[in-house]
Amino acid sequence: MSNSQPVDKERRVWMIACGATGAVAAGATGVTLLSTMAPSERAKAAGAPVEVDISSLAPGEMKTVEWRGKPVWIVRRTKEEVAALAKHDNELADPNSERKPDELTPPYARNTYRSIKPEYFIAVGICTHLGCSPSARFTPGPQPSLPEDWPGGWLCPCHGSTFDLAGRVFKNKPAPDNLEIPPHEYLSDAKVIIGVDKDHKA
Which of 88, 129, 159, 184 is labelled catalytic? Predict the structure, then answer.
């Protein structure tokens, strides 16, 4: 085969253009395919389950994820925080989560810890008074807007409602109920799924 034939420049430009167009089309198809595989924003808003990796969550830390347009807290409590939960029942409005259990507390969370695993606490981060989002105040002891024997938990800045580290509301506060525990279950030691459990398909 001779290499002395002249190069058809127009044909070469045409081939490059076609190849580039094909690559762009393939890329767009790949993006479309990936987007259809992921839950849509509408599905998430409607309550699609949310899978969360908790492997990096250290004791004393909290992370927030979104489920049904609501903030959901995942807290890894320290051993000391877990042990302290049973020590202030007399200060709580509903220590045993007896109010609205079907709405606020699934059967597996009707315990002192309000959780499946004592170490982990999962709750919807919305105050049961007027729907504000309470602020984390995990450090125990006296501090502004909190009692001197504060055990750690959350303070709602709107009207002063306080919740312990199991989301239980303290007495004589505007919030009428404990924080909501969403349906959830553990897929492994490192992953939890919010919005679905073995008994409740959200």
Answer: 159
For residues 186 and 128, the answer to whether their CB atoms sit within 8 Å is: no
What does the H/E/C string look like for 52-110? EECCCCCCCCEEEEEECCEEEEEEECCHHHHHHHHHCHHHECCCCCCCCHHHHCCHHHC
159 catalytic? Reply is: yes
Q: Which residue has the tokens 């509408």?
A: 42
**Res 144 pLDDT > 80:** yes
CA 113, 118, 119, 120 torsion-angle sign:
negative
Which tokens in the block code for residue 190?
């490192």
Angstrom distances, CA of residue 74 to CA of 143, 159, 164? 24, 24, 14
**40-69 pLDDT, tens per residue?**
555 555 568 999 999 999 999 999 999 999
End-to-end CA distance of the chain: 69
Tokens of 187: 């897929």
